[in-house]
Amino acid sequence: MKDRLTSLGSSIRGVLDSAWYQVPEFTLTSDVEIPIYLIHHGQGPEDYEIICDFADFMKANQKGFLSRPNLKVWAGRADFERSPFVRRLRHDFSQQFHGLRLALRAEREHKGWGLPSLGDILLWGLNASSEVIGAVLLWMATAWGRDLIKRISRIFQRSDFNRAVKSATAEQELEALIDEKKEVIDEGLARLEITLHRDLWSYAWRGQRPGPITGMDRQAWPLPDFVRERLRG
Length: 233
Known about the structure:
By secondary structure, the protein is α/β, with parallel strands linked by helices. The protein has helices spanning about 1-20, 25, 55-60, 80-110, 120-125, 130-140, 145-155, 160-165, 170-180, 180-190, 200-205, 225-230, and strands at about 30-40, 50, 70-75, 195. Helices cover about 60% and strands about 10% of the residues. A hairpin with a 7-residue loop joins β1 and β2 (about 50). α4 (about 80-110) packs across α6 (about 130-140).
């Protein structure tokens, strides 16, 4: 029995190792939108909170391969300063992603992990901080390319499967790589297009003379429930 289990474990590991080394070939196939909502609670252009919606992105990655995040920024006004916005987005993106990782990790520990997908490996396997993984996602969103994903995947390919997802060396290399790219990430975030949503626009200018509607998508879908709850709160 022990021999059979050992053989089965080796077979599973062989499949995972084989799939792992295909990451550069299989991670360029899909873009998944991550909506970013700016809710202006105050009457000034800088009085907003940022909400990142990872739901569709996480569902896509749990199906198998790592998808490219495509950031879509929705707001009620676009006259806020871009430099503070970029800093806040980097911070809030990482913090909210961290909360999601903790929640999903607890859920998976309760239900059982099963075999990890390639998306699982990249998003959960490495012991890197959520700040680093969040920065990787922002880099992928702002400076996507085949060379980028190859550089990231080579970090994980330093050793065998079990060690690669826990390697402190891989974490350090990833942190160094992201540190090199902070300027590229910030420049990409500063270029993000801001699309006005009619409901966010009405909320942002409540009690004031209405602001410009340039850049509004009048055909946009209704806001998700959790965003509408924030507006009511």
